[in-house]
Design goal:
Layout lengths: L10 H6 L10 H15 L14 H14 L4 E5 L7 H16 L3 E5 L3 H4 L4 E6 L2 E7 L5 H9 L18 E12 L2 E12 L3 E5 L6 H9 L6 E6 L2 E2 L5 H6 L2 E4 L3 H5 L6 H4 L11 E2 L2 E2 L1 H14 L16 H15 L3 E5 L7 H16 L3 E5 L3 H7 L2 E6 L2 E7 L5 H8 L9
Parallel strand pairs: 1-2, 7-14, 7-15, 10-13, 13-14
Antiparallel strand pairs: 3-4, 5-6, 5-8, 8-9, 11-12, 15-16
Helix pairs in contact: 12-13
């Protein structure tokens, strides 16, 4: 699921690592073999290009060619489309079809039903146990979903209302951010209305993380303004932004959202531990922390042994619920959600969707970034598309298509007005 590539090495060097014998690498032989594989499967790669200069999608192709270079007869793909645009995903499955015709077996690990249904057979795992194996032609999406979760799962609530005419809660104008002289954000401007979920589509690494960091106070933009309910946020600390009614769900839950070795009760008050309600003199009020944690565990159905359970022992879905419980409680004006369903099972995704809709219905403005286009089309009134730090367009979710959004994700600008 995560690449094992050396950014400073070329494509050829990454593919050839560990394959040589003797003191010198037969570069001509390796190059010929790489080109033969790329030609056979219609994969476009420049063997001389450093990995660090490739897009995330191109790096995925390097990983696949690297495996084929070893002569493997079984290819295991763990969430291979998580970093691909829709067009790149279609190309990947075309390559898979060629692999199958060449006698190579493919084990595909995915939570996307459209991909799962393209397989010959499906084995469903739940809580580490094999629930069953079925032929794809003999089952349905709903049956597979029930096997995965253990119950029937409801679809996300489709948003039919318009954002136009509503009170603006968040106004972002000309947001620019530099990193090593490179613009990771380039003149970003948009509004989010009160009671609206605005979606952000884009392949990972196109500025989504940097945008959210600027909005929540973790980083200062080089240029531009951020205004929440007529109050400027630029220059405020993370704590000050949170105090304005902003909740932030980061893309990496264990790196940025939790302290893994702390208890659930402690993680639920991160950033708020200085507030009087959580203190007893100079110390934390353990009774208050435990009462808050027990309520969150019940409300959000967190599978934990109790308030004192260490977050590192929780599953990804339950760890995410701890973050949601903390940040949703803060967010009475603005909720920033960056990839909130990444790596979650169908049941946990259903829960996140339901909670996002609840916050929207409470009048909170929600900015939702997701690599899952189905999520965005189901939950959002409008969808903005980011590419290399720019917001290429903002589309009406009711009239936009997956293909249109996919083209924008690949950098192909349309005539749609942002």
């Amino acid at each position: 699921q995560h690449f094992v590539l050396v950014p400073s090495f070329t494509v050829l060097e990454n593919i050839a690592v560990g394959s040589g014998s003797g003191w010198r690498l037969d570069q001509a032989g390796v190059l010929a073999r790489i080109r033969s594989i790329c030609d056979a499967y219609a994969i476009e790669l420049d063997p001389s290009q450093p990995i660090g200069e490739l897009s995330v999608g191109e790096q995925q192709w390097v990983e696949i060619v690297k495996v084929l270079f070893t002569g493997a007869r079984l290819l295991i793909l763990d969430e291979p489309t998580a970093v691909l645009t829709p067009d790149e995903s279609k190309k990947l499955f075309a390559v898979i079809e060629r692999l199958l015709s060449d006698g190579i077996s493919v084990l595909l690990i995915s939570h996307k039903m459209a991909e799962v249904m393209r397989s010959d057979a499906v084995s469903v795992l739940r809580k580490g146990r094999l629930v069953g194996t079925v032929r794809t032609t003999e089952t349905t999406r709903d049956e597979l979903t029930s096997m995965m979760v253990g119950r029937r799962v409801s679809a996300p609530v489709r948003v039919d209302g318009e954002a136009a005419g509503r009170e603006t809660m968040l106004a972002v104008r000309g947001l620019t951010r530099l990193r090593d002289t490179r613009r990771v954000l380039d003149g970003i401007s948009f509004d989010v209305a009160k009671g609206e979920i605005l979606g952000l589509a884009g392949v990972s690494g196109n500025g989504q993380d940097e945008l959210f960091e600027c909005l929540c106070g973790l980083a200062a933009p080089g240029e531009g303004t951020v205004v929440l309910a007529d109050k400027p946020l630029q220059g405020l600390s993370v704590a000050q932004v949170a105090a304005e009614g902003v909740g932030y769900v980061p893309s990496d839950r264990f790196r940025d959202g939790l302290v893994a070795d702390l208890a659930v009760s402690e993680n639920l008050i991160l950033g708020q531990h200085w507030q009087a309600r959580w203190r007893s003199g100079p110390f934390l009020d353990r009774a208050a922390l435990d009462a808050n944690a027990r309520q969150a565990i019940e409300t959000y159905s967190i599978a934990a042994s109790g308030p004192d359970a260490a977050c590192r022992k929780l599953s990804g879905g339950n760890a995410q619920k701890v973050i949601l419980a903390r940040e949703f409680a803060k967010a009475n004006k603005l909720l920033l959600c960056n990839q909130p369903t990444r790596g979650l099972d169908v049941g946990a995704i259903e829960f996140v969707h339901r909670e996002l809709v609840r916050k929207r219905d409470e009048g909170c403005a929600v900015l939702l970034a997701s690599e899952e286009l189905d999520d965005l089309f189901a939950l959002c009134s409008r969808i903005g598309v980011m590419f290399r730090g720019r917001l290429l367009a903002i589309l009406d979710a009711r009239s936009a298509t997956h293909e249109e959004v996919g083209r924008l994700m690949a950098g192909q600008e349309s005539a749609a007005a942002a």
